[in-house]
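Loading example: each entry is read as two labelled lines plus one structure line.
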Amino acid sequence: MSLERIFKALIELGLSQTDACVYIYLATKGSKSANQICDALNIKKQIIYPSVKKLRNNRIIAVSSRRPLIFYAVPFEEVLDMLIKKKFEQSEEILETKKELVKSWKSVDWNNNK
Amino acid sequence: MSQEKILEILRNLGLKKTEAKTYFYLAKRGPKKANEITKALKITKQRLYPILKNLQNKAIVNATLNRPAKFYAIPFEKILDLFAKAKFEEAKIIQQNKGKFLTDWESIRLPKDQDVSAKFAIIKGRNYIYSKIQQMIEETTTQFSVLSNFSGLLRAEQFGVLDTIKSHPLKSDIEFRVITEVSKNHLGIMKELLDSLDSCIIIKGRNADIGLPLFPRMIIRDNQEILYFISSQTREPEDQHDFEAILTDCISLVKPFSSLFEELWKNSSVIQQKILEIETGISAQRTLIIEEPDIALAKYNEVLKNAQKNIIMIASSKEILLYRKNPSLLKELTKTGVKIKIMAPISRENLKACLDLAEFCEVRHIPNEYMKTIIIDGKHLFQFKIPESQIKDEIVAVSSKQTVYSNDFEYVEKAKKMLLDIWEKAVIPSAVTAGSIIEHHLSGSEQLINKNSKNKIFNLVYTSDQFYKGTQTNTITEKDVISKIEAYKKSSERVDDRNITSCGTLGYALIRSHKNFDYPDLLIIAYDIDEESTFGAENALIMCLEMKAVSGLKYYIPVTVVGDNPKATNGWKKYLAGLPARNNYHLFKRDELYIQTFGNTFFVGWTRSIPLLSTKKPLVLPPSVLLLEATGKIQSRNFEVTLHDGLKQQHELNYSDAFVTFIHQKTKYQGPSTDGSFSRDMYIEDLLNVHDQS
């Protein structure tokens, strides 16, 4: 149940299912290479690599400076704070840009060909 | 603004691609039935319904109550408010429940994976190895332990490894420990090195007084990862590319190495003390260095002849031959009740001599790394620093320029304790060598008894006529075997699956039941099969356990086979039909079973436990490392092996004896070279039998 709640919270905070799996795996099992992540989660490299890249860009995981590249999870509390902050910021951003977004919305009609 | 841009905005708000498209379509085109939406978006109904359900759950699409229902979108302006509010609420709820999540998190944090994802990696080249060491230092959080010879330590300084330690942010919390050797020759450089070091590094010198070897060279990080040097243990390779090390994070393998380190650490002295001992020439009270060989010999003879209780000694391989040639003194001493324990490297050359000596004194095998040491009656200690090549006809090293003699009680007692400790771990030689076992054969049906299940009849009736009946076919040379392998690799006929051929490297070792190896005698056969072989490249192991037949004879029967090539699975099962191993095949991942040759050393390691038998008392071999160090001259042989059902194989090998080192979770086991064999060149070919040809 605990794991489910954590998983759900991470999804609610904006992580995809793969991202959440990768993060939980790294956070519980320690530093691992991309190959180790693929093997353990039984997910193809083509899916793991973009996920790892996204998590790195969002500073949810870190990577070693030298080869072979080893990935580490940022502590859970830090990730939680970061994602909560991001969510508040997104909420504010929507309200701040609302007028502009509505204007754009009105200027575009449905195009069946796209 | 384009439609694409709008869809992107919707996706940024948290909608999936098709959800965004559906919402956009409904928002711009008004209420629509499901079939109208599917046509417009060119998607199936099966796909559409979950999308509509998701959008309804998010309250951005609604449905009319009439049938068929029409779906309509909530105005964009409203959904912006909705999303802003939802995100705010979500963030707020998670923030409020943060404490609960953290508690959940603590409860699901599993202990770090031990062996499931543990792996081996080989690092070649000095630069890569030292880079890896630096990375290991950076990742250290509690303890960093190094066992290195002096040149290795010096090289580490040149590569900036010691600077990495100095600049480690957690250095005050980390225990950096180094065990190295110190000698008169490099005393000056060692002192300079020590002056430049940070106080956070504790260095100890090996206890050279009783010749404890610096084996193996290794680095352990936080008891989680080990870098194990395969290259020469005693000297640095000339070429940087000759540097080879194995890295593993298999905790079960790191553990025994950590224990080895702890044992050495306990028995080593602080380096400054060692330096002082060398500088002053006095290593302990009433301990002296005798420079004059004649005086040393006279003293030694006098003490030896007057021995009354016991003698424990570390001898060289050659000395065993000399004792056998002239055993009178030792024999006389044993007649007067003196108990003699001799430890020496045992090989094919001196095995007979060891067995002869074992008739009146105890003899055990130790690796060829210890200094000649004798303790008589627990009161007198002699150490001779003499290279093996200089030992000729004299038992005692009279040419030794430095003989250490001590009768200091505390010092001799400490050395005796260490020698007895080595003795306890040393292996007793046997006339039954690994070579003789591998050539042994069964004839006729036999009922086998599994030694491990308390002499109950093992539920197997081995009906094969013969298992390993080796028949020497003709005399061949080393070149013949190499040429055969080369010709096979170039041949186009090797694609014929009926004629199964394997070439590569083969090693086998007999690990005898021992105080530190709580298993029945175990014969391990390891194959490093080349990719040109019929089933492609493979690492494979066959484990054989000693079993007693009803007739009373003992046999080593294959009980487990481990491979890492799925294509070869059926091949193994075919060869092992009728044997316990037939039903005990385990397919490992490539990085769970590591077999490779490094110079004269054949390395075998596995990171997963191997079940040996499925009896009432399960017998499982934990992750372990087996090292076979080739010694003696290379020999060549070819022979025909008859397996079950008349299946025949032709074997051609270039092989030599090999000292055995087996490291598993409890201990480091070291066996004589008569218990190991390393075939650098192996060629095995199935001989087509009548059935195949038809």
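Residues 218 and 228 of chain B are 5 Å apart (CA to CA).
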